[in-house]
Write a structure and sequence with these properties.
The complex is a heterodimer of chains A (261) and B (338).
Chain A: H1 2-24, H2 26-30, H3 47-54, H4 56-89, H5 95-107, H6 110-124, H7 130-154, H8 158-166, H9 171-200, H10 203-208, H11 216-227, H12 231-260
Chain B: E1 12-21, E2 24-34, E3 39-43, H1 50-58, E4 65-70, E5 73-74, E6 86-88, H2 100-110, H3 115-128, H4 144-156, E7 162-166, H5 174-191, E8 194-199, H6 202-208, E9 211-216, E10 219-224, H7 226-231, H8 236-241, E11 246-249, E12 255-259, E13 265-267, E14 278-289, E15 294-300, E16 305-310, E17 323-328, E18 333-337
Parallel strand pairs in B: 3-8, 3-9, 6-7, 7-8
Antiparallel strand pairs in B: 1-2, 1-4, 4-5, 9-10, 11-12, 12-18, 13-17, 14-15, 14-17, 15-16
Helix pairs in contact in B: 2-3, 2-4, 3-4
The chains are: A mainly alpha (261), B alpha+beta (338).
Chain lengths: 261, 338
C-alpha cells in the first residue's frame, strides 16, 4: 500500500510540474536587464515592469481589456442565465435548434468568427470600438455561462420552487429568493469563465484591434511578433500572480465553507 | 396561533376534475367535498391519481376539466401563490440556504409581516412543532423528522385554512412515522383547520383520517369514514386494499362475503361451535408468530385459503397439518359486490 501511494504522489507531482513549470519560466525572464527576451537572463532589473506602467500603449490596452471583460461578464451572465432558463425549463418546439445556435460560437473556429465579424464590423464602423469587442466576446462567452447555469438548473430540485409558491411567493420572488441564491455558485463560475474568455481572447481580437483600440493579449502578441519586447514577460508574470491569487482565494473559501458545515 | 382560538377550516370542493397527459388519464372526473376542519385522506397505490389530485388543489397541476373551490370561491385558474393553502412535501422541500427560523419566516415575509410580530409568530410556530431550540440551524443539520416538523411549521405559520400534505411521512422510518402520525393528528385538533393528506399507507389512513377517499386509476372508488371503508367496503378492491381480508364466494354469484381475519376463530373438528356460526372445514397450512398473536393460514376443503388472526393462548396451538374448523359469527360477515 505504502509504496503504491508514494508512486502515485510522485506521478501526480511530476504531471503537475510538467504542466505548470514552463509557465514559470516567464518570471525570471521578466526580471532580465536585456533588451531581448532571453532565458536564463544574464543580469537582473525591473525595467520591464517600469516600462509597462509608463508606456501608454501597454497601459491603455490593459485598461481596455479590463473594461471589455467586465462588460462581457455582466452581459453574458444575464443573457446566458436567461438562455439556460429557457433551454432547461422551456417547452419551445425549436428548443434544440436554439440551443445549438447558442453553443455554435465555441464550435466554429475562432479565425472564421473573427474574419466574418471583421467584414461586417468594418461596414458598421465597430472595429476598434469597445462595443465591437464586447459584442464578439459576449457571443464567445455566453455558451460557457449557459453550460454552467443549465447544469445547475437541471439538478435543481423544483419542489423548492413549488414550496416557495405555495408559501405565497410569486414567480419573481421565487426566482430572487430561492432559485438565484441556490444557483449562485454556478453563476460565479460562469462569470469567471466569461471574464477569462474575454480577457484571454486573441484570435478574434486581432481582427478588431488597431491603433485606436488594442486589447492586452493582442498587444502582447504584437509585442513578441514585432519587437520581441520583454515587457511581455513582465505582463505575463503579473497575470500569473493574479490568476494564482484567484485560485488560492477560491480554494480558501471552499475550505472555510467545508469547515463550517 | 393563540388569538381568536383555533383557526376556521376551509371547505374544499373538487368538481368533475379530469387530467389527461396525452393519451394517459391521470384523473377521470373526480368530485370530492371536504368539510371545514375535516381530516381527509386521499388513499391509493402509486399511479392512482391521489398526488395529481392534491397538485390540482395546490395549483401546481392545471386540470384538463372540472373546477376546484375553497369556501365556495373558484380557484381553478389562480396560481398557487394566490391560493393561501399550506403545503407539506414528501421530501420536506426546506430552503437549504436559510436557517430554520428563516424558512418559517418566509411565508410571513411574503405577506409583509415584519419586526416583533414576525419574530413572535415564527417562535410560536416552532413551539407548536417543539423545535424552538433549533431556530438557527440549517436544514442539512437536522434529522428527517425534525426537517418535516420545520416544513409543518412553515406551512401553518401563515394560518392557511387548508393544509395539503403529499406523503409527508413517506421518507421516514416506521417508528418516527408513527410518532409523527400522532403529532399531525394533535396538530389537526389544535389548529382546527382542514387537512388533505395523501398517502399510500392504509394503516396511516385508518389511524389519522376523519374520512378517506380511496382512489384507483384516476377515480374515487369509495369515500367514507375509516369504519365505512374497513367494515363496509363498496367493492372487492376496497376490501383488499384496506387490511387483510378473506373473500368467500356467496350464494348469489357476483356476490362475495368478506370476513376479516381477526373475526375468524379456529376450533378442533367436532368441537361445539357458538350458535349460528358459519363454519368451513380445513387444514392448517401455515402458522406465523407475530408477538401480539398468531396468523394462521387454513387450506379449505372447499378450495381456497382463509387467514385467521388469533391470540397466542389457543388450546391446542394450531400446527401445520392439523385439521381445523374455521368459523365466524354472521354479524362479522359483510356482503361485498364483486
Amino acid at each position: 500500500m505504502r509504496p503504491v501511494r508514494l508512486a502515485l504522489w510522485a506521478l501526480t507531482a511530476l504531471t503537475a510540474l510538467y504542466l505548470v513549470l514552463p509557465v514559470f519560466i516567464v518570471i525570471p525572464m521578466s526580471f532580465s536587464d536585456s533588451a531581448f527576451l532571453e532565458f536564463p537572463p544574464q543580469g537582473w532589473s525591473a525595467r520591464w515592469y517600469e516600462n509597462f506602467f509608463t508606456d501608454l500603449a501597454w497601459l491603455d490596452s490593459a485598461i481596455a481589456s479590463l473594461q471589455i471583460a467586465v462588460q462581457v461578464t455582466v452581459l453574458s451572465l444575464v443573457l446566458g442565465t436567461a438562455a439556460a432558463l429557457g433551454m432547461v425549463r422551456g417547452r419551445h418546439p425549436l428548443r434544440a435548434l436554439i440551443s445549438g445556435l447558442v453553443m455554435a460560437p465555441v464550435l466554429v473556429p475562432y479565425v472564421i468568427v473573427g474574419l466574418a465579424v471583421y467584414a461586417v464590423f468594418l461596414e458598421w464602423g465597430l472595429t476598434e470600438s469597445v462595443l465591437g469587442f464586447v459584442l464578439v466576446h459576449t457571443a464567445l462567452a455566453v455558451p460557457y455561462v449557459v453550460i454552467t447555469v443549465s447544469s445547475a438548473l437541471m439538478s435543481f430540485d423544483r419542489r423548492l420552487e413549488q414550496a416557495a409558491m405555495s408559501l405565497g411567493a410569486g414567480p419573481v420572488a421565487t426566482f430572487a429568493r430561492v432559485t438565484l441564491p441556490l444557483i449562485a455558485p454556478s453563476l460565479a463560475s460562469g462569470a469567471v469563465f466569461a471574464f477569462v474568455t474575454s480577457f484571454d481572447e486573441v484570435v478574434t481580437s486581432v481582427f478588431l484591434s488597431g491603433p485606436d483600440l488594442t486589447t492586452l493579449p493582442v498587444q502582447m502578441w504584437s509585442g513578441v511578433r514585432v519587437q520581441i519586447d520583454p515587457t511581455v514577460a513582465a505582463v505575463s508574470s503579473m497575470l500569473l500572480l493574479v490568476t494564482l491569487s484567484l485560485f488560492a482565494a477560491a480554494g480558501l473559501t471552499r475550505l472555510v465553507r467545508r469547515r463550517k458545515t | 396561533m393563540n388569538e381568536g382560538g383555533p383557526n376556521e377550516g376551509g371547505a374544499v370542493d373538487v368538481r368533475g376534475v379530469g387530467k389527461r397527459y396525452g393519451e394517459a388519464v391521470a384523473l377521470d372526473g373526480v368530485s370530492l367535498h371536504v368539510e371545514p376542519g375535516e381530516f381527509m385522506t386521499l388513499l391509493g397505490s402509486s399511479g392512482s391519481g391521489k398526488s395529481t389530485l392534491l397538485n390540482v388543489v395546490a395549483g401546481f397541476t392545471r386540470p384538463s376539466s372540472g373546477s376546484v373551490a375553497v369556501d365556495g370561491r373558484d380557484i381553478t385558474k389562480e396560481p398557487p401563490y394566490k391560493r393561501d393553502l399550506g403545503m407539506v412535501f414528501q421530501h420536506y422541500a426546506l430552503f437549504p440556504h436559510m436557517s430554520v427560523a428563516e424558512n418559517v419566516a418566509f411565508p410571513l415575509r411574503r405577506r409583509r409581516v415584519r419586526g416583533a410580530e414576525l419574530t413572535r409568530r415564527v417562535g410560536e410556530a416552532l413551539d407548536v412543532v417543539e423545535l424552538g431550540g433549533l431556530r438557527d440551524r440549517r436544514p442539512a443539520q437536522l434529522s428527517g423528522g425534525q426537517q418535516q416538523r420545520v416544513a409543518l411549521a412553515r406551512a401553518i405559520v401563515f394560518r392557511p385554512r387548508v393544509l395539503l400534505m403529499d406523503e409527508p411521512l413517506g421518507a421516514l422510518d416506521k417508528r418516527l412515522r408513527e410518532q409523527l402520525q400522532l403529532e399531525i393528528k394533535r396538530l389537526h385538533t389544535e389548529l382546527g383547520i382542514t387537512f388533505v393528506f395523501v398517502t399510500h399507507d392504509q394503516d396511516e389512513a385508518l389511524t389519522m383520517s376523519d374520512r378517506i377517499a380511496l382512489l384507483r386509476d384516476g377515480r374515487i372508488v369509495q369515500v367514507g369514514t375509516p369504519e365505512d371503508l374497513y367494515d363496509r367496503p363498496a367493492s372487492r378492491y376496497v376490501a383488499e386494499f384496506l387490511g387483510e381480508s378473506n373473500l368467500l364466494p356467496g350464494s348469489d354469484d357476483p356476490e362475495l362475503f368478506l370476513v376479516r381475519p381477526q373475526h375468524v376463530r379456529l376450533s378442533p373438528p367436532g368441537a361445539a361451535l357458538p350458535d349460528g356460526h358459519h363454519a368451513r372445514d380445513g387444514k392448517v397450512a401455515e402458522v406465523i408468530y407475530l408477538g401480539s398473536g398468531l396468523r394462521v393460514e387454513v387450506e379449505l376443503r372447499s378450495g381456497g385459503r382463509l387467514i385467521a388472526r388469533t391470540g397466542t393462548r389457543l388450546d391446542p396451538v394450531p400446527k401445520p397439518g392439523d385439521d381445523v374448523v374455521a368459523h365466524w359469527s354472521p354479524q362479522d360477515r359483510v356482503t361485498v359486490p364483486a
